[in-house]
Amino acid sequence: MTKPTRRQFLRVTAVGTAGLVLGCGDPRVVGTPGEDGGVIDLPDGGQMLADGGVLPTEDAGVDAGQPLPPDEPEETAEAFGFALGVASGDVEATRAVLWTQYVGTRALRLRVWRMEAEVYAERVADTLVQPGDGGFVHLDVDGLTPGTRYRYAFFEEDTTGALVARSSIGRFRAAFAAGTRAPLTFGASSCTKQGTTPSPLLRAGERDDLDLHLLLGDSSYNDNKDTLSEYRTQWAANLGGPEYRTLRASTSVLATWD
Questions:
Q1: Strands in 190-258 per DSSP E
Q2: 8-state DSSP, 78
Q3: What is the per-residue pLDDT for 237?
Q4: Residue 228, class by beta-carbon neighbours within 10 Å (0-12 exposed, 13-18 middle, 19+ buried)?
Q5: What is the DSSP code (8-state) at residue 5?
Q6: Order of strands, edge to edge, in the sheet holding 95-101?
Q7: Distance in angstroms (rounded) separating the CA atoms of residues 136 and 100
Q8: What are the φ/ψ torsions at residue 246 (nearest 5 degrees)?
């Protein structure tokens, strides 16, 4: 998907708003959209608002015609409402399931980006999500490119739609297309028990080259737990630890039954 240029962004915004800040120095252009959408194309390539205000031509301003600035989710503060962090799983060549538990009350938004090295090259998903029972979110995101690396985060929104806080930022790689022959780097673990520091998990989570991590059983010890509430409490005691949180954010997880 091609990013919109600043000129395209300004035109779309002018159609839907009564006031607009344009270009360098933020000069104010005020206009009320008319029945024709509020924008009139001029012969010289410029544009005019319905009330006579003129939008700049393509060469006006040092940033005219340039792509909009990329997203920078790190600039949004991390929130305390995501006690279990984030996770990705069931990752296929064109889709993945993204997960979190949210215990706050604000509206929740998921954003996913295609990465080029450390650059947020393209936002490929941006959607409001509704947590289910227990605050858990399982969202199936499709339209991914095989073998490509992605990042994602869940954001809290205030009543105006502004992003005010976020979860940790997760990473995953889409699976290779069928028939692809390429290196695949993965980690694996089993038998991690509450109260024991799982240092291998922490070391795995500190890496940025794992394509997935395998949980091969006994990821939580739940003996004598009979109710859903008891199971969730016991699992949270394990999965809420910093080692597991770091690991699940660093790569996608493929888990087996104990």
A1: 212-215, 253-255
A2: B
A3: 85
A4: exposed
A5: B
A6: 136-142, 95-101, 86-89, 253-255, 212-215, 186-189
A7: 6
A8: -65, -45
50-54, 93-97, 177-181 — which is least confidently predicted?
50-54
Q: How far apart are CA 44 and CA 57, in angstroms?
A: 8
161 Rama sector, left if φ>0, alpha if ψ -120 to 50, beta otherwise: left
| Residues 43, 257: Cα–Cα separation, whole Å | 67
Higher local confidence (pLDDT), 137 or 12: 137
Bridge partners of 154, per DSSP, are 110
Question: Can you tell me whether residue 164 is helix, strand or coil?
Answer: strand
pTM of the full predicted structure? 0.70
**CA dihedral (66, 68, 71, 75) positive or negative:** positive
Amino acid identity for residue 243 in this structure: E
Residue found by looking up tokens 């104010």 in the block = 28
Q: pLDDT (tens digit, 9 = 90+) per residue, 243-257?
A: 899 999 999 999 887
| 3-state SS assignment for residue 39 | strand
Question: What are the pLDDT digits (tens) for 55-84?
Answer: 444 443 344 444 445 688 999 999 989 999
β-sheet bridge partners, residue 128: 109
Annotate 94-137 with DSSP letters as a single string.
Answer: SEEEEEEE--S-SEEEEEEEEEETTEEEEEEEEEEE---GGGEE
Token pair for residue 132?
Answer: 């289910």
**Is 22 a residue whose pLDDT tops 60?**
no
Confidence (pLDDT) at 132: 92
The conformation of residue 4, written as its DSSP 8-state character, comes to P
Classify the C-alpha dihedral 200-202-207-213 as positive or negative.
positive
